[in-house]
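Justification of computing resources. Each target in the renewal requires a structure prediction run like the one illustrated here; the chain below, 248 residues long, is used simply to show the kind of job we budget for.
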Amino acid sequence: MEQRLQKLIATAGIASRRHAEELIVAGRVTVNGQVVKELGTKADPERDHIKVNGKLINPQLKARDKVYVLLNKPRGYLSSVSDPEGRPLVTELLPPNLGRLHPVGRLDFNTEGLLLLTNDGDFTNYVTAARNRVEKVYEVKVKGVPPDGAIQRLKRGVVLEDGTRTAPAQITKLSETKTNAWYEVSLHQGRNQQIRRMFELIGHSVLKLRRVRIGFLTDEGLKPAHYRLLSPAEAARLMKSQNRGKRT
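Resulting structure tokens:
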């Protein structure tokens, strides 16, 4: 299907649409070997060879048919593509040239950390299915210091207030003071607000919650509100991870 060159260049991740227009006007874009300088010119990446600065961009366009994004979500953003209340959305943290993406699972409005977004439904279904054991690791700050017996209950699984039972979880204490404690919690399950509800059940509210790992993907080097694209190879590896890869 034919599309405007500036859109194709932006979709390939070469430049923003505005910068792509500048590249076209400067004569740095060719279609089938012919220099194109007219804005609005269209091309079909299935049929035409498109080059920017002498480099063929068709491979990037093919690879970007499916987009995978790893976002470090800050507090105060909704993991959704729309909200009738007008709250900030995680999709607003991404540039429009990535196309229409949806969150893979969710993070609560006031929860920070790693969130995947994609346009690949099969990828979403795989990562969010508990049976596939894609591990999600969280760092949790709770009010007070829960006794060891209460933490052991959470590790084994507990019945929440709505009657659902949580699966066994890995929980490791990271640090504590007289007034609060930090834990690392590893889950394969994704019930709504599960970690907050688990700790509320034993009488210790969650003060801060952030997701620091999804499978082998970590938050290392990724600041809050920043994102990076996953390669198709990384996406494929995540779908085959089966709980491999620990945070180092």
